[in-house]
Amino acid sequence: MLKIVRHIGEGRYFKKCLERKIEPVIQLTFQNDLNSGMKLCTTIMGPEKQRKGPKEVQIPVPFGHIAAQEWGPPEGFPVLALHGWLDNGGTFDSLIPLLLPNLRVVAIDFVGHGLSSHKPPGGIYEFAHNLIDVKRVVDFFRWKKFIILGHSMGGGLGLHFASIYPFLVEKVISIDIIKPVIIPHDALTSHVLQTIDQQLVLEKKRLQPPRVYTHDQALQKLIKGLKNQVTEKSGKILMKRGTSTSTNENGVVFNHDICLYNIPAFSLVKELHKPILENLKCELLIINTKKKLFYEDPVECEEFLDMYRRNCKHFQYEEVEGLHYVHLNTPERVAPLINDFISK
Q1: How far apart are CA 150 and CA 82, in angstroms?
Q2: Is 152 a catalytic residue?
Q3: Contact at 8 Å (CB) between 110 and 85?
């Protein structure tokens, strides 16, 4: 079945596509507009330019590398895809093929996740450190303008990065997160205590050999760990980058660093996030699911949404049916919204 992503004119080309049952392709480029400066433009292209990939990429960091999958033509408009906590870049494997074909999408595994290097012994996984790694990726590809597509934690990081580097980020698409997770003031001290103690426990546990699972055991553990928010099909996709064959080849082990289970409390303070996100000016699309994985204070959420409405060049909020991993389980529910937002 022919799916037309967006009709932008060029009637004769679309007519030929309909006759030959070829999907029209849209090229995203920058043109210099005398009135508004650099402007994102759309051009219809032929099927020979359709998406290629993925191919594996490694971005060097001081302690190893950040692993990534690169989809699409090298000349395509760059999109950086940022996954959620304890996930990996494979979380976008179902969605990316449904996006505009002339996008160059790079889906990374954050440090400690998927196929990326772990931090050295004693390392702590801080929210701000992920922002540094995002900048490393941007510098590696030498991008001057790009779009951020983030899910959950990746969405929160995208909001922050775009606020800090407004001259680099054209648009942000955040899936199932309005703002970074925030801890109430009355729980902060106890959470800090827990953070310190848990870090020391996990550092010792990290020295032990990882537990080996059968493939099915690992799949069920992953699904359960994600609160049954992914289907078996989606779980198997995440396992491609999230597990490896054990050294004795008797099963699989999880790739993520167990120290990721410790989330430093100072990354979860409202007074840290809000002053930064007040600087968010780019175009923003938030896609939320109607069935929330975790509770968020509705008053607090509305406070941030009002801030986006006031400050962003363009703000769009959408709700869709589905679970927290809607982009992975049922990508067809979010892909049209993303394509329309990017091509505007």
Answers
A1: 5
A2: yes
A3: no
Would you state the structure tokens that stand for residue 294, as one six-digit string? 């975790």
Please identify which residue in the block is written with the tokens 């505009």.
100
Give pLDDT, residue 291: 79
pLDDT at 266: 65
DSSP state of 256: S
The residue annotated as part of the active site, out of 94, 117, 152, 234, is 152
Instruction: List the one residue out of 25, 18, 30, 31 whose CA is nearest residue 44.
Output: 25
Average pLDDT over residues 171-175: 98
**Whole-number Å distance between alpha carbons of 125 and 116:** 13
Distance CA 58, CA 218 (A): 26
Average pLDDT over every residue of 306-329: 97
Rounded Cα distance between 87 and 208, Å, is 22
Q: Is the Cβ–Cβ distance between 284 and 171 less than 8 Å?
A: yes
Q: pTM of the predicted model, to two decimals? A: 0.85
Strand partners, 84: none
Which residues face 6 on adjacent strands? none
Give me the pLDDT at residue 52, please.
Answer: 63
Q: Is the peptide bond before 121 cis (omega within 30 degrees of 0)?
A: no
What was the pLDDT predicted at 184?
83
β-sheet bridge partners, residue 103: 77
Residue 174 token pair: 């955040």
- Judge whether 259 and 123 are in contact, CB under 8 Å: yes
CA distance 230 to 323: 8
